[in-house]
Amino acid sequence: xxxxxxxxxxxxxxxxxxxxxxxxxxxxxxxxxxxxxxxxxxxxxxxxxxxxxxxxxxxxxxxxxxxxxxxxxxxxxxxxxxxxxxxxxxxxxxxxxxxxxxxxxxxxxxxxxxxxxxxxxxxxxxxxxxxxxxxxxxxxxxxxxxxxxxxxxxxxxxxxxxxxxxxxxxxxxxxxxxxxxxxxxxxxxxxxxxxxxxxxxxxxxxxxxxxxxxxxxxxxxxxxxxxxxxxxxxxxxxxxxxxxxxxxxxxxxxxxxxxxxxxxxxxxxxxxxxxxxxxxxxxxxxxxxxxxxxxxxxxxxxxxxxxxxxx
Length: 311
What we know:
Layout: H1 2-9, H2 19-41, H3 46-57, H4 60-63, E1 67-70, E2 74-77, H5 79-89, E3 92-102, E4 107-116, E5 121-130, E6 132-135, E7 138-141, H6 145-167, H7 170-186, H8 192-205, H9 210-217, H10 226-240, H11 246-249, H12 256-265
Antiparallel strand pairs: 1-2, 3-4, 4-5, 6-7
Helix pairs in contact: 3-5, 3-7, 5-6, 7-10, 8-10
């Protein structure tokens, strides 16, 4: 019986490989081998990399894009900081690859990776991305090819960030964040009063009043500190990049539950301002992050708000 079936079905034909595909496969293998050889022959200089990292993180442009903040999902160093540290550390390859796309099932399979070629340390994540996005509390189907591509790149970029931070030395990442925070607090040398005024003006242009900002910070704008302005800057950039709606960060209404943390911080004395809990703590990032850090998207932001933080 098996012979009859074999005769009817016949041997499976091997997949046809074109000459172009064969050349690309050979080239990819050669590139990997060359990268390993070059990394061994030209090892990184950790001292030089540390100096370059400090110089880069002292620039306002990088510091403003170095952090993200999304309510209920977390905050921490962004993909932009991860890419810059990978460049500075050297001998690091990273990227996102779309392995497959099933339009009928509404799903794509994506691979994100980061590879330290010199030490042969590799981190990668393979995951499925539904062709959907959240619109409030509802799921919205994606059918436009451009939207699907951007969704895959967004989710892939977040995974790439985690992969890069996995292979980089923790001390390098921690010091980079400290230097960026210091740069944001300095505000490019501008007086604090000027930075507060610019922050209030920038938020006003996107429909967030100073009263809502004061409720979120927990004190009047006249008493804001360098840290308050820097954290508001991170929120502003997150709104500008479309990672979160301004209403989530700065709601109009305030409930009794929202006031409790403020009263607790004051020891229960006096009346608390109608406010949300204090600004987001940027001390650590979640293991798997959240904001749509687009792999190809390079936001510009509002130039008049240049001294505050960004993702």
